[in-house]
Hints:
Layout lengths: L4 E6 L2 E6 L4 E3 L4 E2 H15 L6 E7 L9 E3 L11 E5 L2 E5 L3 H9 L2 E10 L7 E7 L8 H14 L5 E4 L5 E6 L6 H18 L4 E2 L11 E4 L8 E3 L18 H5 L12 H8 L12 H10 L3
Parallel strand pairs: 13-14
Antiparallel strand pairs: 1-2, 3-4, 5-6, 5-9, 7-8, 9-15, 10-12, 10-14, 11-12
Helix pairs in contact: 1-2
Keywords: Ligase
Pfam family, one: LigD_Prim-Pol
Protein name: Non-homologous end-joining DNA ligase
Amino acid sequence: MARQGTIIKLGEFELSISNPDKLIWPDNGITKLDYVQILAELAPYLLPYTSNRYLTTIRYPKGIHGTSFYQKNCPEPAPDYVRTATENNIRYVVMDSLPTLLWMGSLYSLEFHVSCEEIGIRLPNTWMLDIDPSLEVEPRLMEATALVGDLLVSLGLSAVPKTSGATGVQIVMPIERGPEFDDLRRFGKFISEYLVAEHPKLFTVERMKKDRGDLIYLDYLQYYAGKTLPAPYSPRARPGATISTPLTWEEVRGNVKPTDYHLLNIRDRLRIRGDLLNSAPKQNLAPILDHLRIKNPV
């Protein structure tokens, strides 16, 4: 007989979990209570990437095989501990605390997508390139990812690859503040068009999916104010309970798969490797951006 409800206690914080035995990822045996408990362990790694950004969630009240909906506005009623921020008449949740994360999990929020821009800060602190395969299963994905990394290294730069948790990879580069989003888009365009020219049978910058064929799309336009990407360590509502996971370049060259990392093994990985993004040094893009401005004056 299913339990009607469970109370989670963390210090003075209490959260009532209704239907704790409901299967959210049935094929993996992950229940609603399991999910919320895993989120509690992921909190130190996930919250730094959501705590000062506008949050968009995807909710699956019946589990991953049921209907879903995107939610930008804060669900009502919201507990007192939930902080919000308003932008363009949307009252977003700011997921900056363990209670807020667990509350969102209890509402069947299975994916956490965050704004590229930080709240109240104009200049970005990260550059990102989205590697988006046209095929659902792309055997060349890690080869493509390694080529992006090699190009960055040739420019004296380092970055961290992370799985999207779905089919693609994002290249994440912490940067010293100074460049604006338009500057980063210019840099992304340079990187992407160079790789397309060098590897025309592998990459494309064609925005229309129907025109890409089987090529891998380098989306330098997605990282921009007003757009969102899955946060590092966000679960994904997909078979296998996959999770957006930072990788080492050795793993990339070993041809890992996005499905290798999921809610059932991510905690062990983090205990062994820690947060690969947190330890990544900030890069100075100013010299390269200055060079691009000289080559391509406005």
